[in-house]
Amino acid sequence: MGILSRSLTYSRRSEDNSMKLLATALFSVTFGILLGLSFPSLWITKIWVPSNPKGAERLPPGIIASESDLYLRRLRGNPEEDLKKKPRYLVTFTVGYKQRQNIDACVKKFSDNFTIVLFHYDGRTSEWDDEFDWSKNVIHISVKKQTKWWYAKRFMHPDIVARYDYIFIWDEDLGVDHFDAEEYIHMVKKHGLEISQPGLDPEKVCTWQITKRREHVEVHKETDEKLEECSNPPRPPCAAFVEIMAPVFSRDAWRCVWHMIQNDLVHGWGLDFALRRCVEEPAYEKIGIVDTQWIVHQLIPSLGSQGKEEDGKSPGQGVRDRCYTEWAMFERRVDEAEKEYFKSLQVQTPSNSTTLH
Fold this sequence. Notes:
By secondary structure, the chain is an alpha/beta fold. It is built from 8 helices and 9 strands. It has helices spanning 2-38, 100-107, 126-131, 148-155, 181-190, 251-260, 271-274, 315-344; strands at residues 89-95, 114-120, 139-142, 166-170, 174-175, 195-200, 219-220, 248-250, 287-297. Strands 1, 2, 3, 4, 5, 6, 7, 8 and 9 form a 9-stranded mixed sheet that branches. Helix 3 (126-131) links the parallel strand 2 and strand 3. It is globular. The termini are far apart.
C-alpha cells in the first residue's frame, strides 16, 4: 500500500507539472502575439509593401516618387527653390532645322504656362540656340530620322508628363496666325473636351470634313457630311475624331492613348480613328474641334526627305507606303485584340466596336 500511495502521488505531481508547462507555453505565445500587435517594430525587420509600384515593394511609401515632370532645374541652391513657376501644360513639336522660322512663330504663341519640347529628327540642335533666345529655355531631344509618335512613346510616358493638365503633340508645318494657346485651353475646358484640335483653314486642302473650321461657333463635334457609316451613333470620321497632325490630350486621355501607341508603328496612321476608345461614352461629346482658335496645315512633306530611295521608289513614296501599311496593321491589331477580349468573356463582339471606318 505504501508503494501504491507513493506512485499515485508522483503521477499527480507529473500531471500538475505538465499542466503548468502547457499553461506557461500558452501564456507565452499569447503574450508574444499581443506584444507583436502592440509593438510591430519589435518583429518587423524588413519592408515589403505590395501596394507600392511594381519593383518598389521594398521601399517605404513615403520615399517613392512614382511620377515625374519635364521641369528644368538648377545645379545649385536649394532644390525647393528651383521653380518660380510650374507650367501646367506641355507642347511638343517634331522638327527639322529647315522649318525653324515656322517653329519660332509657333513657340511664341505659347506662354510660360507651357513646357516646350522640340524633338529633332535631323540631328541639328545647337544652331537653334544661336538663332533663337527662347531655344535656351526649352528641351531639345535629338534622334535622327524618327517620327513624333516614336518620340512620344519613348519620352512621354504618362508618369513622366503627369504634372501637365493638357498635352499638345504637334507637327512642324502649322500656321498659327489665328491661334492663341491660352484661349484654346479656355475653350477646351469650357466645352469639356478630353481630345481636341484647332480647326483647319477651310480655304486649304483638308483630308477630313470634320476638321474644317466653322465660323460663328466656338467648338463643333460632328461633321455636316451625312455618311452612311456614321449615322448612329456618330462615329469617326464624322464625329469623335481629330487628326494626328495637331492633337491635344487631357492628362487622363493621354494615359490611355500612350498605351495604345504601338512601338513599331511609328507614323501613327489609324490612331485618329481609335482615339474615341480613350474617353468615356458618348465619345462624340468629349472629342471636338475648336473653331475660335484655328490653324493652317501647310502640308510640307518634311519626313519624306528623311527616307531613302529603294526599289525605284522616291524617299517620299517609300514613307507614304509605310504609312498605309501601318494603318492596315494597326486596325488589324485592334480588331484582333478586341475579338480576343470578348471571346475570353464568352460574349459576342459588339457590332459598333471596330476601328474600321
